Amino acid sequence: TADDGYRLWLKYERIPNATVRASYSKSFSFIATSGNSDILNNAAKELQTGLNAMLGRQIPIVKTPVSNQHGIILTMSAIAGPGDGYAIQMQGANTVITASKDAGVLYGSFALLRHLQQHLPLEKAVGQSSPKIQLRMLNHWDNPEGTIERGYAGSSLWKWYELPETVDPRYTDYARANASIGINGTVVNNVNASARFLTAEYLPKVAALAGVFRKYGIKTYLSIHFAAPKTLGGLKTSDPLDPEVRKWWAEKTKEIYRTIPDFGGFLVKANSEGEPGPQDYGRTHADGANMLAEALAPFNGVVIWRAFVYKADPAADRFKAAYEEFAPLDGKFAKNVIVQVKNGPIDFQPREPFSPLFGNMPGTPLGMEFQLTQEYMGFATHWVYEAPLFKECLDADTYVNGKGSTVARIIDGSLHQYPLTCIAGVANTGSDRNWTGHPMAQANWYAFGRLAWDHTLSPEAIAQEWTQLTLTTESKDVAAISDIMLRSREIYVNYNTPLGLSRPWTGSHYAPEPWQNRSSRPDWTAIYYHRADTLGLGFDRTATGSNALQQYRPEVRRAWENAETCPLPYLLWFHHIPWAQKLSSGRNLWDELCHRFYTGPDSVLWMQKQWAGVRASVDPATHTDVSGRLVKQYNEALWWRDAWVLYLQTFSRKPIPAPYPKPG
Ligand code: GCU
Record's SUPFAM superfamilies (predicted)? Predict the structure, then answer.
């Protein structure tokens, strides 16, 4: 039957090879668990569902191991490594999954299933694994009326109007999918938050979701509207230092915990893009965060305070804004506050240098915010595998404590000994049957979870694993599909924002608009970012320009500040380059731009060819769906190419170099 994508990477297809099936069958005659928690029961149930389907037989769940038979034993006891880790061992011929917490047993069960879905020898499943980051979260930008900010896969998964009485079974499948990749927290509503979620009407709805998620080890969080004391509480102010305001938040927090006893905490967007915040009252981000932290502390809740801020200052460089506002506050935040930083200094562009905040707040836990939804990467039409983007940032060296001070080591807490660690992905899910709109975008959700657990995994390994779980186990086709995935981001960059260009859009963030020069704010135009003129292209952020490079350590600065040696992917992020200047590629700037704008769409033709070659082993409905999207992607890549080339040509006044044809 045609696959509709609903089962994601949890397909549990019957194993075609009889020998493999027989060898697994011998080892799995029962699943034993003392089963004294919902999470343990769900671990056993998932193993049963998976094994029954893969092996084509019924495997019972029992309380104690059956003698003379071989099976899986789920047990809890202290294992090495913190928190959510698990161990898989062979004891005699039994497979034993052990963890200190029941959630660890669940993660170990999913790890075993993942292993079997790839038809690997059972003994190779033996080992131990612990997550490197404590809070591994999805951030949903979902609104109360069901829309999703920057969502391209339908409407919200949460049916607020029918909750709490009706609990859609899909919430359970959502929780299973997350637990299977180790995600243990979810913020259910938009950072541009409606105060409604804090009302007595909505809290029971949120509690109903939390009731489902809890059984899979997932805590529920809410984005809050900072001015809620005024809008909801009827107070005259929302000043975080006002005693009445503090009391209001303390009471509200108590009410939340009465409704949701294991509530995770608050995510806050404040004084950013028009949202209210402590600065409305002359207070700092720390004042605001600490007020909420005080309310949450009795319940072990956390405040996740976002650093996505930038002021409407025409003379300023938006690149520098977050650092300027937050770095001086280092060490001023309460113990249960995490400052969540987007990977780059601007806003989820197809390629950005890492945010200079990483490394510059050693006294404040910094969390990572990645965006899974493809706001700037072709929505659900363009195929972009994001793991290379995530990895590029995680592996970037900040040099704050000398060589090897990677962004990953900052957010996993090992560099500055953070007591709290956090990584968030802005979700790409929605009500579409296949969850993510573009079937291949499921891989971005998957890769995020896998990297949140272990940031040392490679994009290649994750691509192969996901492909095997989701599309096919045919090894040559796995290789062909992962090859497309691994190149897809660079291909998109080539036709969209090559050489360090950024943000050629206005509102929708989809269509090419590099000429866009009018807005209520200069930093909401496209020309602010690329700075094209008759002399050249790019934003000078060296000492002769905005000097944003000053926010990085000398080693990083040195790598980027010299236009001759700056790596080409970052060139126009930091330099205004003359059109005729020769680059390290041997071509001048104009020719190199054209080269990339033209090879981009050509590479989409390559993706189409490569994808056509795997038709035999991929589910027909999925294959047809992706083929159609690749046709559109090609047409739109041409559209991007032509828009950029024709627009920039009005400044460069140079011909399109051979062998490329004229646009259009
Ligand atoms: C981007 C995005 C907004 C979002 C904002 C944020 O600017 O376009 O829709 O609200 O990021 O992260 O807060």
Answer: (Trans)glycosidases, beta-N-acetylhexosaminidase-like domain
Shared domain check, 164 and 281: yes
Mutation test residue for ligand 1: of 150, 271, 502, 506, the one with most atoms within 8 Å of CB? 150
Report H helices in 283-430.
285-296, 321-326, 387-394, 407-411
Whether 617 lines ligand 1, by a CB cut-off of 6 Å, is no
Q: Return the amino acid letter for 427.
A: A
pTM of the model: 0.98
**ipTM field:** 0.99
Element spanning 578, H or E: strand 577-578
Q: Find out whether the beta carbon of 262 lies less than 6 Å from any atom of ligand 1.
A: no
Residue 269 Cβ contacting ligand 1 at under 6 Å: yes
Q: Is the pLDDT of residue 120 over 60?
A: yes
pLDDT tens-digit profile of 421-471? 999 999 999 999 999 999 999 999 999 999 999 999 999 999 999 999 999
Query: Do 190 and 294 lie in a common domain?
Result: yes
Residue partners of 389: CB distance under 8 A and separation at least 6: 343, 350, 351, 370, 489
Q: Are 112 and 143 found together in one domain?
A: no
Under 8 Å between Cβ of 266 and 422: no
Range of the domain at 576: 493-652
For the chain, the straight-line distance linking the first and the last C-alpha, in angstroms and rounded, comes to: 42
Q: Which of 289, 354, 281, 350 is nearest to 322 (CA)?
A: 354
In a domain, 476, yes or no: no
Give me ligand 1 centre to Cα 155, in Å: 18
Q: Does 10 reside within a domain?
A: no
